[in-house]
């Protein structure tokens, strides 16, 4: 009986200790730490707010009786020890007292997992000046004061789909030197179409930060196009910077000794107040174009014969969201056979936004003789500089088919019987030789020769070859499924040709792959680029009865294109994604 009772007691204590340790692991701590509770008026005070879980909306106290000379500096550390994750995040300030007396560092607040946590107040006593103040800064203090990451935004109140440029600059004091850095947290740019402009060289330039001379380096440039109006937040960029800080110590030869340390800097959140496009004066055919554009509709020829082809190009050029709107479609006469347009894009993204041109190329083949007018079409866009809508109209184009069969409703005028006679001059036959120099040939020179029999029996030999090729062509034409597969493979190669050329170049490959996938959806589903969210694509493809495996494959490719901006991808992964994209487009096209 005693053994049973001992086992029960042992199990109860083990369970209690396990639950206690689990509760301690999940317990949230938010504390205030100070470098000292008593200091002279000529000394400095370091205040640090630490937490063991990540939080948002940090609000520091007012620091009454002190002046903030540095901060807040954010520091994050995360590690795994014996299979357990430890996390620590802190906000630190450097304060100097403004008067003698007793002061209180009041409560700071932060939100963690939806709950608000507060620190305990801390009493600080400021005395008269001391002989040896702690004005000598530590290595971390110098690094905190000398490093500042700033996100410069070109516009804080842009219109919907207007370009906004974000430039991340790292300001470094001349007192220290940066050896390296690594990103800790890259912003996701939710609710924005984003395009990063690569920074090829990190060249230090002279500048000022809060009125003091600094050197700065541009680390990152991003062009954003907001896809919804209202207050949109740009997530902060956080970096770990490795620096060399000079100390007051000297080596044997009198040289200054440097100390290495690393600090975490953050650009902080930026909020944009995105304005909706005005409803007043909005054209009925407005398709979402924002910028400053030119518009044209041209054809490769205006006169041709039936069964010949011509190219009609609908083109928009200029500066603006060129990749984010649908081109207008021409209204062509029903008697003209029109093929699916080929999308042509020549756009580059610079610091001020996208510029270049986009176009749809239509192949047109007339079947009957006559005159066919192509009516003018309009293209509307919103100019954010003038805050007005602009509508551009193309001119009417007349296509004349000179030779070919007459259609049932052909109104072309038939040729008249009037003829124009040519008056002879007496020299119209002067090119005929009256005294030719002829020589005799043998009677059996050609007849009975090898060439004679070859030409005689060659048609007989060509008959079975012609029959074979005819049956082969008929078999290919009757193979509907095979022809669909061939057309689908050609379509996949068409949209993925650019990405294939960039295999091995990660950034260029995934940018081209993403464009190819988007252009395929534009051509097949006629949907606006502003609707290019993964949920919208999934819903549309599901409504089109596309198999779920193909839809998931298409969405996973888009996710890979996004992840490739921030994650390393091998050549094998790029080759697999290219083959997967080709297969998904081919199979989806058969079902669509």
Topology diagram in text:
Blueprint: H1 2-26, E1 30-34, E2 38-40, E3 45-51, E4 56-59, E5 66-81, E6 84-97, E7 101-105, E8 109-112, E9 115-118, E10 122-127, H2 139-146, E11 147-153, E12 164-172, E13 177-185, E14 192-197, E15 205-209, E16 212-226, E17 230-234, E18 238-250, E19 256-266, E20 270-274, E21 291-299, E22 303-304, E23 310-320, E24 336-338, E25 342-350, E26 353-366, E27 370-374, E28 378-383, E29 388-393, E30 397-401, H3 450-478, H4 480-501, H5 506-525, H6 534-543, H7 548-563, H8 571-591
Parallel strand pairs: 2-10, 22-30
Antiparallel strand pairs: 1-3, 3-6, 4-8, 5-6, 7-10, 8-9, 11-12, 12-16, 13-18, 14-16, 15-16, 17-20, 18-19, 21-23, 23-26, 24-26, 25-26, 27-30, 28-29
Helix pairs in contact: 4-5, 4-8, 5-7, 5-8, 6-7, 7-8
Can you walk through the features of this model?
With 592 residues, this protein is α+β, with helices and mostly antiparallel strands. The protein folds into four domains: 27-135, Immunoglobulin-like (Sandwich), CATH 2.60.40; 142-274, Immunoglobulin-like, CATH 2.60.40; 291-401, Immunoglobulin-like, CATH 2.60.40; 480-591, Four Helix Bundle (Hemerythrin (Met), subunit A) (Up-down Bundle). 26% of the residues lie in helices and 38% in strands. It has eight helices and 30 strands. Strands 11, 12, 14, 15 and 16 form a five-stranded antiparallel sheet that branches. Strand 5 and strand 6 (84-97) form a beta hairpin. Helix 4 (480-501) runs antiparallel to helix 5, helix 5 (506-525) packs parallel to helix 8 (571-591) and helix 6 (534-543) runs antiparallel to helix 7. The longest helix is centred in the C-terminal third of the chain and has 29 residues, at 450-478. The radius of gyration is 38 Å and the shape is elongated. The two termini are 76 Å apart. This is Oxygen tolerance. Residues 1-23 form the signal peptide. It holds the Pfam family BatD. InterPro entries: BatD (IPR025738). Keywords: Membrane, Signal, Transmembrane, Transmembrane helix.
